[in-house]
C-alpha cells in the first residue's frame, strides 16, 4: 500500500448472527459467520494521479472514470433506499444495514475526491452524474420495494466487477498505485456487503408470492443493467472523445477492452445472468476469501457493533 495513504479503523467483536435470525420465513444463504466491517480509508489528496492513470491507457482509464463518476449519486440512492427499511427489519439486519450505510458514505467521499482529480485533468464528467440522476428518477411514484430492487441489481453488478478486480490482478496491473488502492478497497467492501440488500429484500417482500418476487426482481434487473451498462459505455466513449478519439475509434477500442482483452464483461456475463435465475442470492457465490486478499493492515479487522 502507498505509505501516504491514511487508514482509520473502527473495531469491535464480530456480530453473532445465529442469536438473532431474521423472521422472514425465507431462507437466506448469507453465511452466518460473515461479518461486515468499516474501513474508513482516506486516500492521499496530494497525490499526483496521472491523466491516464490506468497503465497510460486512455481506454482503460476512460472506462474506470466512467464508473467512478456514476458512483456518488448511485451510492447516495442506495443509502436512502436502505434507510427506508431500517425501522422494519430484525436487529441483526438493522446492524448490518448501518455498517453498509457507513461503508457507502465512505465510498462516496473517496470517489467524489477521485472524480475531482478526473475533472482537474480537463474531463467534463458532469453529464455522467446527470445521467445517473435521470436513470434513478424512474423510481418516482413507485413503491419503495422498487428502489430496493434497483439497488439489488446495481449491487449485483458492483459485486461482480469487484470479484474480478480482486481475483485477477491483471485488471489493475500497471495502474497508478493510489488509484488502484481506491478500487481494491472499494471492491473489498462491495464483496463483503453484497448480501445485505438482498436479505432486506427477502424480509420486505416476505408476504409476496415467490412468483411476484421473482418477476419484479428479474424485470428490474434486466432494465437497470441495460441502462446502467449502456450509459457507462456511452460515457466512456464521451471521455475518449474528449481525449481526441473519433467516436468510431473510441467505440471500437472500448468494446475490444470490455469484451476481448482483458474482456471483463465477457468473463462475467454468466455470473451476471444468475440474478435472473430462481433461487438467486448474492452469496450463492461464496468469495469471502477475496476480502482479505489485498495486502493491507486492516484485513482481519472486525465489524463495529453499530
From TrEMBL:
<dbReference type="InterPro" id="IPR016516">
    <property type="entry name" value="UCP07580"/>
</dbReference>
<dbReference type="Pfam" id="PF10118">
    <property type="entry name" value="Metal_hydrol"/>
</dbReference>
<protein>
    <submittedName>
        <fullName>Metal-dependent hydrolase</fullName>
    </submittedName>
</protein>
<dbReference type="GO" id="GO:0016787">
    <property type="term" value="F:hydrolase activity"/>
</dbReference>
<feature type="region of interest" description="Disordered">
    <location>
        <begin position="1"/>
        <end position="32"/>
    </location>
</feature>
<keyword id="KW-0378">Hydrolase</keyword>
<feature type="compositionally biased region" description="Basic and acidic residues">
    <location>
        <begin position="8"/>
        <end position="20"/>
    </location>
</feature>
Amino acid at each position: 500500500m502507498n505509505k501516504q495513504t491514511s487508514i482509520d479503523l473502527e473495531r469491535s467483536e464480530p456480530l453473532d448472527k445465529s442469536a438473532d435470525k431474521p423472521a422472514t420465513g425465507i431462507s437466506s444463504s448469507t453465511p452466518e459467520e460473515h461479518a461486515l466491517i468499516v474501513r474508513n480509508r482516506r486516500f492521499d489528496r496530494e497525490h499526483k494521479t496521472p491523466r491516464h492513470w490506468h497503465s497510460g491507457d486512455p481506454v482503460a482509464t476512460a472506462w474506470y472514470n466512467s464508473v467512478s463518476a456514476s458512483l456518488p449519486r448511485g451510492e447516495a440512492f442506495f443509502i436512502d433506499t436502505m434507510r427506508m427499511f431500517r425501522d422494519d427489519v430484525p436487529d441483526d439486519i438493522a446492524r448490518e444495514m448501518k455498517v453498509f450505510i457507513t461503508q457507502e458514505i465512505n465510498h462516496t467521499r473517496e470517489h467524489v475526491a477521485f472524480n475531482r482529480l478526473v475533472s482537474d485533468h480537463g474531463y467534463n464528467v458532469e453529464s455522467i452524474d446527470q445521467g445517473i440522476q435521470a436513470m434513478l428518477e424512474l423510481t418516482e411514484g413507485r413503491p419503495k420495494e422498487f428502489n430496493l430492487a434497483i439497488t439489488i441489481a446495481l449491487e449485483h453488478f458492483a459485486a461482480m466487477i469487484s470479484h474480478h478486480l480482486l481475483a485477477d490482478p491483471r485488471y489493475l496491473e500497471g495502474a497508478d498505485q493510489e488509484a488502484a488502492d481506491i478500487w481494491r478497497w472499494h471492491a473489498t467492501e462491495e464483496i463483503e456487503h453484497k448480501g445485505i440488500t438482498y436479505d432486506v429484500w427477502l424480509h420486505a417482500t416476505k408476504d409476496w408470492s415467490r412468483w411476484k418476487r421473482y418477476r419484479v426482481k428479474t424485470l428490474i434487473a434486466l432494465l437497470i443493467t441495460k441502462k446502467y451498462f449502456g450509459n457507462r459505455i456511452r460515457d466512456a466513449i464521451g471521455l475518449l472523445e474528449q481525449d481526441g478519439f473519433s467516436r468510431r475509434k473510441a467505440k471500437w477500442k472500448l468494446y475490444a477492452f470490455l469484451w476481448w482483452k482483458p474482456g471483463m464483461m465477457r468473463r462475467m456475463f454468466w455470473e451476471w445472468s444468475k440474478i435472473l435465475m430462481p433461487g438467486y442470492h448474492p452469496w450463492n457465490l461464496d468469495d469471502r476469501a477475496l476480502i482479505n486478499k489485498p495486502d493491507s493492515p486492516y484485513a482481519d479487522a472486525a465489524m463495529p457493533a453499530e
